[in-house]
Amino acid sequence: MLFSLDELERLLERGEALGASYAEVLYQRLDSEDIEVENKALRSYKSQSFSGLGVRVTCGGSLGYASTNRMTGEGMGRALESAVRGAGSTPRGEDEPLRKVDIIVADAMPPVKVDPLDVSPDEKVVLALDTNKAAFNDGKIKTARTKVRLMVDERFLVSTDGARVRVVTPLVGLSHASVAEAGGERESVLDSRGMCAGYEFFESQDWSDFATEVSDLAIEAVGSGTSPSGNLPVVVDRDMVGLVLHEALGHAVEGDTIASGESVLTGRLGTRIASDFVTIVDEGVVKGGHYAPYDDEGVEKGRTVLVEDGFLRGCLTDRRSAQRLCLDPTGNGRLQDYENSPLARQTNFYMEPGGHSLEELVEGIDFGLLVRGRGSRGGQVEIGMGTFTFGAGPSRIIRKGRVEELVRGAVITGSVLDVLKNVDAVGVDLKVATDAFRRCGKNGQQVTTGMGGPSIRVQRMTVGGG
Amino acid sequence: MEIARLAIEKATMLGATEAEAYVQSARTIRIAFDEEVRDIRTVESTGLGLRVALGKRTAMYSTSVLDEAEIYGAAEKAVKVAKVAPEDPDWAHMNKGYGKSSAEGYYDRATANLGCDEMLEGLGSAISILNERDRRAKPTRGYLSLMTSKVSLVNSHGEAVGGKETFATAWMMMKAKEAGLESTGSEYQLTRSFREIDLDSMAEKAVDKAVGFLGAKPVQTGEMPVILENRVAAGIMGWILSRPIRADVVQSGGSRLADRLGERITSEDIEIFDDGTMAGGVSTRPFDGEGHPTQRTPIVESGVLRGFLYDSYTALKDGVDSTGNATRVGFSYNRTRAYSSPPTLDPTNLVLVGGSASVDEVIRDTKHGLYVEQTIGEYMSDPISGNINATVTHGHVMEDGELGAPVKGVVLTGSYHEQLRDGFEAIANDTDFYVTLSGMGFYSPTVKLRRLTVAGV
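Above: the input entities. Below: the structure tokens describing the complete assembly.
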């Protein structure tokens, strides 16, 4: 670290001397590497080291923020003054804008066997090249692109209240996309795997198999028809369900959008928003998920129950939205990097498993769609209109209780207020995962999250096809 | 320039046969508001992106710490990786043609000198409008942001170029509620100068839009004519066309337009071009991410495919000139932290033009169909398959030449390639932009597509 704790503490004292009733600094250092291979050749190898300080103060009931990466006493001092000046230019004279929290002193990091940044560059290039080469298993594969990403993100929060929270989050992953061509049509499938772990994660998986499977799916998809359009019963598989929950519910229970009244779930705490079978939680540390034992405001992220047996039981708060809502902070104050302010964000957002096998979920559907997550193109929600959408990976038609032919290009929409009420069966096959490439955007900030759940059956969803 | 030269000197000393340094310093002031100003943030950032080549092996390292030791460290790390990277047989050399184009309207001194007091003053009446214009609606999120960025670019071939740019952006989101109905209305503007943003008029539109969408609901599933408002049309067009017109995609076999130069690919009314010099465009700058002058590059003229976009790597491979499309992607539309990105090949301002009708005329000529004002998930429109994918959050039923009941929650799908071939029934004259998170600007007028699948209830 380029700063001593002592220096940070002195900076905070100066903030108080300038009139701040509370001050905190978040130091961050992010080291990362990105390796990209296309069509069996290295396309780029980029390494990055990014670091700096974010300052937050409260002053006259208002918040001020500033950040700098000029790592000098002068640079830090100027950031502090900007933050105080910003808060001072909009005095509100009310109560403190941030909810009081327990003071935590902690130093956290998940187990890492091999520091991903210590592994030699040529070993990583070979991993990306070998994976990429394995994807060319058929003449129909036109192009293939493989990316390897390794990051170590260190954050250290120090506040005038006494919080001293250091969290180091390693995140590694590999993404692969194959494009297949047949009969004048082209189709691409992109999939990725990642984990908050060291380089040992790469050694624990068979990446050639992974790339081959992606290519096989692209080849099958390019020869298949497009998805039917209309209102259909669907089974959402466990690779897809996390994104569906993230868009259909997760953003709408973020406390800042409830405090402002934007979310369609505003004022619905305690009411039924889902069927009896649905229990959904957000939890900071889950096997396979993102690593978030504490948030970027130094608040412990335990387990928050959002939906219990179909009833809305809570929301995800940062310190500011907690204050506006008169609730306890749930440890969901997260920011993209020290240049940004914390927002209420999800950590590992997932549904608790039920009792059904995938076969049982499919049984009894006369005509519908098995919506699969592998190769999904992402999703989005407009929480004020209550409309969400997601793009499925190549999926399968369900006909008379049987899983049949592949279809491509299914895009699905639903209503935040209705979709979970239509869940009529929940699978046993819980899976939670995180991703080094796909991040979640809000107010211009991108953060890594974890998501998941078991396969679920939904009575009706609006499916758009080709 | 000194940091850049230091980095190059060190890299060359360590054995790099070529080196290029991109140094960026940026300052952002951002005010967040809803019913009142919520907070103010100022961000100062600097960084160095160093690209090196050892013969035909290349690597890139970026850092936000600009002391001498870190700059030397950056050079060491970049050279270390380049030494073990496989040779790229197509690598010729870094760009030797630095320079500036006649681009205009990308820097505004007044905007660069503004402080948060002037910004707060400008916001005051807009926030009053948001709060008071209609009792059913209230503001829930918004920001006003100004950014100034200064770039210096130097390489070991003796080339050097530099410049400054400014961005002003504003966004506001309204929520309306009445009798159990809920809806939103938002407005977004991005300009290169603060005085071009009309905050009061944005506020009025956002309120009226929110209230106008109370009661929005899906329509029945079916095929129908669809009018895409300018920004929606620009987004879908951009996501699908920005990829197959890139020379790197053409060269790697990934473009379906690869062997169609000189062929008619769309109606002869349509022109498509990329223009990094366009006055005040969202991606206008005088030189690209590797110092090459920007330009206007024709892609489609009178419906005929005329060209692709090049950076120096792909241009040297094909024996042509770069079109100035090397892009430093950065971290948001205004490319903060562009220094951390290696140059990639992307459009600057990708523009589709072709119509002379007013939007009102296009609407009047439409007996039935769907009018789309805003979507989510349009980024899932797929450049490889050519499938249009977008979910409507704000639309209207078209009835006898007029906008009817508000619509939300329906999915648009269809083949963009088929639409491009002969599906554009009408093109209006009201060009506006769509900007991606990585800073590409897509421009299109409102277009009427003959037939799309609309999935609803």
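Note for the figure: The mean pLDDT of chain B is 95.
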